[in-house]
Amino acid sequence: MQIDGDGLYLVAGVALLLGAVLPRLLRRYAISAPIAFLGAGLLLGLAVDRSQLSPIAQPDLTERLAELTILIALMGVGLAIDRPIGWRRWSVTWRLLFVAMPAAVFAVAGAGWLLGLAPATALLLGAVLAPTDPVLASDVQVQGPSTGEGAEPEEDDEVRFALTSEAGLNDGLAFPFVYAAIFAATKGAVGDWALEWFAWELIGKTVIGVAVGAGAGWLLGKMAFSAPVPSLRLADSREPVLALAMTLGVYGLAEVLHGYGFIAVFVAALSLRAAERDHEFHEELHGFVEQLEHILTWGILLLLGVAITGGLLKPLTLAGAAIGVLLVVVVRPLVAWLALLRTPMRRSERWVTAAFGVRGVGSVYYLAYAGADFSTDLPWLWATVGFTVVLSVVVHGVAATPLMRMLDIRRDRSS
After folding, report:
1. pTM of the model
2. Which of 314, 315, 322, 362 is nearest to 129 (CA)?
3. Do 368 and 63 contact (CB within 8 A), yes or no?
4. What is the CA radius of gyration of the chain?
5. What angle separates helix 281-309 from helix 378-414, to the nearest 10 degrees?
6. How far apart are CA 402 and CA 30, in angstroms?
7. 8 by DSSP, 3-state: which?
8. Mean pLDDT: which of 164-168, 253-257, 406-410 is highest?
9. Is residue 240 within 8 Å of residue 186, measured between CB atoms?
10. Helix or strand or coil: residue 326?
11. What is the distance between the alpha carbons of residues 136 and 357, in angstroms, rounded to a whole number?
12. How far apart are CA 359 and CA 318, in angstroms?
């Protein structure tokens, strides 16, 4: 049976209802909401026309939907973090970003090259699978801003802070590696483009993204909380649409200036939070963003499930499956564990932080963004990335509730 256009409204309504109910129903079980929505998408794929719901058939739609989902998630995680940014306060984050992530990129790229991939394709696969996800990892991230009198920040929950702050920044920091793969595929020898890549794609665009985010967040924070004209103080009028306006505006400005918009949005959220850290308006902004994020996430997972039912994984080879398993089970846990050595984290906290490198919407976005330059390998790349995302959703979704509960119990006992 095929569902027509009007029937899709029914499907959308049921999906939203499930989205409201499933997180509560599954809270006590080792089944995350992403697993349930992915399964629903697999079933939905049996009833709808799958030919036009593939990321290969609709690369632009896939890219834009994933892009918007990531942007909303980045604003949400930026608003949720209580800890002021600083080199020492964020030491675990810097280790995960500047040690673990590049190590994972090159480990996956090396494995792909050894398994027969062209160097550019192997590097792209490593870059696409590099970022941990700010969208699907909500079960292991900080749950929202602590504001108001008597609020207790998440300072003692180093695991959730590390995973949240890492996910907030590494979506943008994966871009230079994606561009390196594109340059390798389109510009020839490394010597012909290495200097341009280092100076502009790695340094220049990152600096612009940070500057735009910090400046825009500071300016909007001043306007929202302490503008001399009362009608401009959005915090007083409780206008949560500021979060969406800020997300889209900051991203657009950074991209127009040729900077990394993902970095700009996350930094802007941190700057807005710093403008008046204890104001309860942050909770309203975060709640508004969280609802948008949930809706977009449900849509992405349903479409991914439909695409899998339609044959997205058919080109998957043993080598592709091996790379996905290697990344989720070995590479990410190992490189993150090594990066976190000699930090104040307990051994169990290091292991959990290292293990929960959730792969998801970020990987979908980057492959849709860069796929046009790798058309020959594109079906295999989508199959490999799709398999890895599904594996991560299932493995991390099942493990999140019991492991985070274990850490909470140990933390309560030690305190």
Report:
1. 0.91
2. 362
3. yes
4. 21
5. 140
6. 7
7. helix
8. 253-257
9. no
10. helix
11. 10
12. 20
pLDDT tens digit string along 129-182?
998 887 766 667 777 787 655 444 444 588 889 999 999 999 899 999 999 999
E strands present in 96-161: none
Q: Is 235 left (phi over 0), alpha (psi -120 to 50) or beta?
A: alpha
Which residue's structure tokens are 């389109």? 186
Measured distance CA(240)–CA(377) in Å, rounded: 43
Maximum distance among all Cα pairs of the chain, rounded to whole angstroms: 63
Task: Provide the token pair at 210.
Answer: 């940070």
Q: Which domains does the chain have, with CATH numbers?
A: 5-414 (1.20.1530.20)
CB atoms within 10 A of CB 351: 18
> Which of 107, 154, 104 shows the shortest CA–CA distance to 130?
104
> Is residue 248 a contact partner of residue 158, using CB atoms and an 8 Å limit?
no
- Give 281's contacts (C-beta < 8 A, 6+ positions apart): 224, 225, 234, 235, 238
Tokens (6 digits) for 143: 């749950």
Give every CB contact of residue 17 below 8 A, 6+ residues apart in sequence.
Answer: none
